[in-house]
Specification:
There is one protein chain. The protein is an alpha+beta fold. The chain has three domains: 106 residues, Immunoglobulin-like (Sandwich); 31 residues; 70 residues, Arc Repressor Mutant, subunit A (Orthogonal Bundle). It is 35% helix and 38% strand. The chain contains five helices and eleven strands; from the N terminus they run H-E-E-E-E-E-E-E-E-H-H-E-H-H-E-E. The strands form two sheets. Strands 1, 2, 3, 4, 5, 6, 7 and 8 form an eight-stranded mixed β-sheet that branches. The relative contact order is 0.08.
């Protein structure tokens, strides 16, 4: 059985239309994008630029951004293959990125306190996912207030003065024995006499002090006189002897 010319023409027409349809579908699926993505502090996303992907360009949408507690999750993912794409994504000022995942290649930079993500790719899905926080000062943007610096310096100076006073007080305390007598400024022999009187807890004669400490009598007499003038001891004459006792404080 042979086909008529009329049927043959219809057959070729169907083949041609089929090929044309396949070509158009193939052409329509060749997506591209050259876009900018701006995210404001409230989480609204604006996408502008050039693309043939349907409904990719939007203004002030919340569709791509979700907030959980203090974290924002930005997710712009398209399931179709893009022959090529380029984007510049800008996060709000003082943002910090906790997590980022993107198709293609990315480069992160900072400009006037804002984080900028530059991305590009070929023959792959268009996808970018970022978890970030806002309101945190970065190291580059943190500046000390001059008044704050002045107050810190004043506090440090006061602390230093208190430390010096404390050290001096500790040194003074060390020269005061457990009974409360200040031995600071005394000679070695005067300290020996004072310690002997304190330890014995009773008056002693100059002769007893001479024997106990093995100090010459003239030196004992001279140092007792000086201790008496300093108000640390008192002398009482009993008969031919002088009775020496610690003066009560």
């Amino acid at each position: 059985m042979s086909l008529s010319k009329k049927h043959l023409n219809k057959f070729f027409l169907i083949i041609f239309l089929f090929i044309l349809l396949v070509f158009q579908l193939s052409a329509e699926s060749d997506f591209y994008a050259d876009i900018t993505i701006d995210v404001d502090s409230s989480g609204f996303v604006t996408i502008e630029g050039v693309t043939n992907y349907p409904n990719l360009l939007v203004k002030n949408t919340e569709a791509y951004n979700l907030k959980k507690q203090s974290y924002w999750l930005l997710n712009i993912t398209k399931e179709e293959i893009f022959s090529d794409f380029v984007y510049v994504l800008t996060l709000p000022e003082s943002s910090s990125i906790n997590y980022i995942k993107s198709s293609g290649s990315i480069r992160i930079e900072e400009d006037e306190g804002k984080l900028i993500i530059n991305g590009f790719g070929e023959n792959e899905l268009f996808s970018i996912q970022i978890q970030y926080q806002t309101g945190k000062l970065t190291d580059a943007s943190f500046k000390f207030d001059p008044i704050f610096i002045f107050l810190i310096n004043v506090i440090i100076l006061l602390i230093a003065i208190l430390i010096v006073i404390f050290i001096k007080d500790r040194k003074r305390t060390k020269v005061i024995n457990k009974n409360g007598y200040d031995l600071k400024g005394l000679s070695q022999r005067q300290k020996q006499i004072m310690k002997l009187l304190i330890d014995r807890k009773k008056p002693l004669t100059q002769t007893e002090i001479h024997r106990e400490l093995n100090i010459p009598k003239a030196s004992v007499s001279r140092n007792i006189r000086r201790l008496e003038l300093k108000g640390l001891i008192e002398k009482e004459q009993i008969g031919m002897s002088n009775l020496i006792r610690i003066k009560k404080i």
